[in-house]
Amino acid sequence: HAMTIGVERDISAMKEREAELARARQAAEDAASAKTRFLATMSHEIRTPMNAVIGMAELLREGPLALDQLHAVDTIVDSGRALLAIINDILDLARLQSGTPVIRKEPFSIFACVNGVIDLMEPLARAKGIDLAADLPVDTPPLIGDEGRLRQILVNLVGNAIKFTPSGSVRVALGLRRTGDIAQVEIGVIDTGIGIAEDRLEHVFDSFTQADGEITRRFGGTGLGLTISRLLAREMGGDIAARSSPGAGSDFRLTLSLAVAQNREARPIAAAT
Ligand code: ADP
Question: Which superkingdom heads the taxonomic lineage of this protein's source (predicted)?
């Protein structure tokens, strides 16, 4: 009889522990979703007045202004835009983390997409005296995917490469291997910049994390770009990997596996170009 009581006690203790674990899991899930909701709401609430501040400051800039006033108004516009970019990143991250679908599936030209990013970033590279080169095959088949989100990832990778490269070059290489209706895409962004220490390399993908606090203050940025980019890449069935060697440069590789558009679906691209 004593043994039966002992076993029953063990079972009830086990059940209690299980219930406790389930409660803790539920609490963690609730906290995560509350955080996501909070960030999304805050971002919306901040965006509206911030847009008004920027809009009004832009209006003021038109008027006759003394030089120091013009400088002040320019600072308002620039700071407002920087704040808005941060807010947009936070909102984007909150959406991605809550599992809200953000990826569109439409036919697009990957050549035009990568080429467009090069054109966009070229002045930034030139201003720093950095050689921005692209190695792209011209005969890419039309693919199905989210061109805007792909552009966002590439602008982040190329922007970082330029930002963390004091001199030398940034090279963007596009490779594409087709097997039937699927194209394995690999885009490398390779720089000759300051590089990242080995023990910091995986952490650059964490939110609000930068490789080096001191560098960060010097370079600015939120530390959200790579977090968002990797989440987006994974939403697209791909990933981003990084290799780096301090003092020599970094190599960020985006891999995606995208469906090749059939002729019927490809027509909008032909019409657009
Ligand atoms: P942010 O650029 O806004 O700080 P990211 O998430 O894009 O945020 O990057 C996180 C950190 O990773 C950067 O602050 C930087 O320390 C490091 N990093 C990213 N790309 C590079 C690169 N190409 N070369 C050196 N460091 C990099």
Answer: Bacteria
**Ligand 1 center to residue 165 CA distance, Å?**
11
* β-strands 106-108, 182-191 pairing: unpaired
Query: Could you report the predicted ipTM of this complex, rounded to two decimals?
Result: 0.97
Instruction: Tell me which residue has its CA closest to atom 23 in ligand 1.
Output: 161
Q: Is the Cβ atom of 222 under 6 angstroms away from ligand 1?
A: yes
**Distance between Cα 216 and ligand 1 center (Å):** 8
Rounded CA separation 221/138 (Å): 34
CA-CA distance, 30 to 269, in Å (whole number)? 44
Helix ranges restricted to H, the chain? 2-62, 67-97, 110-127, 147-163, 213-219, 225-235, 263-272
**Amino acid letter for position 189:** V
Closest Cα to atom 11, ligand 1: which residue? 210
- Separation CA 271–CA 267 (nearest Å): 6
Contact yes or no for 194/178 (Cβ under 8 A): no
> What pTM was computed for the model?
0.80
